[in-house]
Amino acid sequence: MTGRFFRNESGYALALTLIMLPAFMGLALLIIDLGRGNNAHSDHAAAADALALAGARELDGGVDAIVRAKAAMEEITNSVSFLGIVGDDVHIDLAYSAETGGDFRVEFLTAIPVSDDLPLDPNTFIAPENHDTGGANARYVYVYSESRPLHSFFVRAMTNFIPWLENEDPDVRVGASAVATYRTAACDVTPLFICNPFEKEPEGSDLQSAFARGDLHARLIKLHPPGNSTAKPGNFGFLQVRGANDDSNASANTIRDVFAGGHNPTCYDNSIVTTKPGAAVSISQGLNVRFDIYDGPFNSRKAEFPSAANVRKGYFGNSDCNTSLTSDPAFLAVKAFPDNSIMAAPNQGVPGASIGSGAWDVENYWEKNHASPPRPALTSEEREEMSTFTNLRDASGKVVPSRYDVYRYEIEQNLIADKSVAVGGRTESGFPQCSNPDPVDLPTDPLDDPRVMFAAIVDCLAHGGNGVTDFPVNSFASIFMVNPMQQQGTGDGTIDVEIIDITGNGGNGTLDAFVRDEAVLVR
Fold it and tell me: Of 104, 138, 328, 404, which is least surrounded by CB within 10 A?
């Protein structure tokens, strides 16, 4: 009997099961905790991503970018599940506060490590010199989702069986971080940059605010090539253009064709643009095609590069079709769009940055350039109808439209064929003569207008240099070519422009069709 009892194996599996039961239960609880932890981490990551993207969409270079970013982030609400076991902690809401940060830590940065391999440790990569509290230089927003404790089933249960876990914290921290930035890509646009004309102004040097106030409305800006000197406010220059089929630099002929209206194979990022060193060859030949002036190689390519619908320019040559622009062009008694009397010398930026500085003699322009058939003077109602900004008024209180406003009004009211006053027995109209176009085919859409170009506006004093220079972009702008590009000796000279619109918070939004804006996660 005794031997049979010891040899009996009945219940052995049950005994082993009872012995292993705590381990099985611990493993099950651990798996449950891991699943809850993964879900909680995913929720935290989604919260950090959403908050970072919301803030990054406002980092457009404006001085109030951070204020707007914080306001946008306060509108975002996220939730995290499975942190607790029972009660309110099972599902919690996370919210951001502009004052205290709320459930998040948020930093606005000018730069982040180049390598993706570097960890997102705030104590190492967020150096003081990379912080921005103003807004104009903020390029990135760093968000860390501060975790509430995840209550661990495993640790709580095992403290009853494993003595050395008795003093362990049963709550586990779960969190996530994200870094986002705002990117703008301008594609198939003119490879031109302009030095911020407001950069030298001690007051109101923020381009976004100045534009929103109307300080640039009707302001004729004379852009000058910097030559061999460092570019300054009032200068312009050229951007790198890729070769048509590769990443190499394009030839001078390709660049000239781009300025004539040809395809630009380069997209320009909103954060950094690279300048082209030296003076481009005969850019004026390309630009002036837009005014129905087909010089040099463009004389045989009129069909390939159409002019604008309205080419009134206050200039005539030896024939109705002007195939060249001399170094001292023969202007009419009153140029098509006369200069502002207050314009300063080259490289001095925009003086007197205030509303009213852009006033020009609209009445004299209208009288001289619409003499046949004679058009009556513009009424106050017509001025207001054509003007995109009615706060600018002359001494008599009449609204002063910009030159671009008048130019578009002439097209929309079918007035481009009107003749100017006769000078030396000759008159000028706004209708193209060289390309001999069919009026039905003339481009009339403002977004397709050859006299409207696009440029990157950069702060040349803060980031100066000559040769190949990487410039941070202040904003992109659409600009109206007021006059043909003049020649300076044997080279290209000044470009007279009005700024129509800019990207960013201060702009009017007309560049949305040409500029792709997006907030993207970079970490």
Answer: 328
pTM given for the model = 0.69
CB 358 within 8 A of CB 218: yes
**Those residues with Cβ within 8 angstroms of residue 519's Cβ, 6 or more apart along the chain or in another chain:** 53, 54, 56, 57, 180, 181, 182, 183
Higher pLDDT, 226 or 396: 396
CA distance 431 to 113: 55
The model's pLDDT over 401-459, given as tens digits with 9 standing for 90+, comes to 999 999 999 998 999 999 988 877 788 888 888 877 776 666 666 778 899 998 888 88
Domain extents in the chain: 13-183
Q: Are strands 452-458 and 272-274 parallel, antiparallel or unpaired?
A: unpaired
- C-alpha torsion 94→100→105→111, nearest 10: 130
How far apart are alpha carbons 82 and 239 in whole angstroms? 53
| Contact criterion met (CB below 8 Å) for 53 and 45 | no
Q: Is-contact 401 407, C-beta < 8 A?
A: no
Query: Shortest CA distance to 199 belongs to which of 349, 357, 353, 354?
Result: 349
d(CA 214, CA 405) in angstroms, rounded, equals 14
Q: Which residues pair with 85 in a beta bridge?
A: none
Q: At which residue do the structure tokens 């129509």 appear?
A: 500
DSSP letter, residue 415: -
What spatial distance separates the first Cα and last Cα of the chain, rounded to whole Å? Answer: 74
pLDDT in tens, 260-314: 888 888 887 777 787 776 555 578 888 889 999 888 888 888 888 888 989 988 8
